From TrEMBL:
Pfam families assigned to the protein according to its UniProt record, in alphabetical order: ABC_tran
Keyword Aminoacyl-tRNA synthetase: no
GO molecular function: ATP binding; ATP hydrolysis activity
Name listed for the protein in its UniProt record: ABC transporter domain-containing protein
Domain called ABC transporter: residue spans: 1-246
InterPro entries referenced in this protein's UniProt entry, alphabetically: AAA+_ATPase, ABC_transporter-like_ATP-bd, P-loop_NTPase
Key words of the record: ATP-binding, Nucleotide-binding
Length: 246
């Protein structure tokens, strides 16, 4: 579980921001295209320089090594990055398990896509450091509508929505304490969007992760914030302010 605090954080082009997101809290940000939503998320993730401080559970970012910070504070970018030819190469696999993706393929229907009681922790409980047991990964992929043979696929063939769902899986298997989501479901059809929303919600509640989510979709913001008791902010003229109810 982790809370996220922005203490006069000043990303490029934005006024300093004071914001506290509690452990397990969902906060949306919106704003017109070019308002600075991605800049804010990137500044929190320490991918762009910024002024001010960010704290995770009261620990200042400035005292945490950058790789550790980026593991604990996970960013799902709007445009996902892929650095290897095959999907499976982007997932860290436990050396105790077969390294080849094909060994992870399960017969059609063999993956239990039904969350167990308590759901998500079973999947992340398989994570050892940065490494993941096969069962957990297969179940996570199944919850996003994939069979395990997706790990054998060439990245080149992935549709935009497949990239988005696989990038979400890649983010969650690392077990970040805070989620920064940049248009996490923008390219998904309603059914896949609902699956992704449910997975994110399970993760937030069960891991007590602070979630900061940039979304252009007013219905999504209102629906999910209301269900989770979350808050909505908007960036306008370089300032973050509470979003007025529609
Ligand atoms: N490295 C940079 N240097 C200068 N300006 C930048 C840089 N990166 C982004 N910008 C500009 O900052 C502004 C905010 O960009 P940002 O990507 O945060 O917008 P956004 O709110 O996420 O928009 P969208 O909803 O279209 O994704 C844009 O005008 C963009 O062109």
């Amino acid at each position: 579980m982790a809370a996220l605090t922005l203490a006069r954080l000043q990303p490029k082009l934005l006024a300093p921001i004071e914001l506290e997101i509690g452990a397990g809290e969902l906060v949306f940000i919106s704003g017109p295209s070019g308002a600075g939503k991605s800049l804010l998320l990137r500044a929190i993730a320490d991918l762009d320089p910024s002024q001010g401080e960010v704290l995770i559970d009261a620990q200042p970012r400035s005292l945490i090594p950058a790789p550790e910070w980026r593991r604990r504070v996970g960013l799902l970018p709007a445009e996902t990055g892929w650095w290897a030819d095959q999907v499976g190469a982007h997932f860290a696999i436990s050396p105790a398990e077969p390294a080849q993706a094909s060994a992870m393929a399960t017969p059609a229907g063999a993956v239990d896509a039904t969350p167990t009681q308590g759901g998500f922790p079973d999947e992340v409980a398989q994570v050892k450091g940065d490494q993941l047991g096969i069962t957990g990964l297969a179940r996570l992929l199944a919850r996003l509508g994939f069979q395990s043979d997706v790990l054998d696929w060439d990245v080149q063939r992935l549709s935009t929505g497949e990239r988005q769902r696989l990038a979400l899986a890649r983010l969650l298997v690392n077990g970040p304490e805070v989620l920064l989501l940049d248009e996490a479901t923008a390219n998904l059809d309603p059914s896949n969007r609902a699956q992704a929303e449910q997975l994110i919600d399970d993760y937030r509640r069960q891991r007590r992760a602070a979630v900061l989510w940039a979304s252009h979709d007013p219905d999504q913001r209102q629906r999910l914030a209301q269900a989770a008791g979350g808050r909505c902010f908007v960036i306008e003229a370089g300032r973050l302010q509470a979003e007025s109810p529609a």
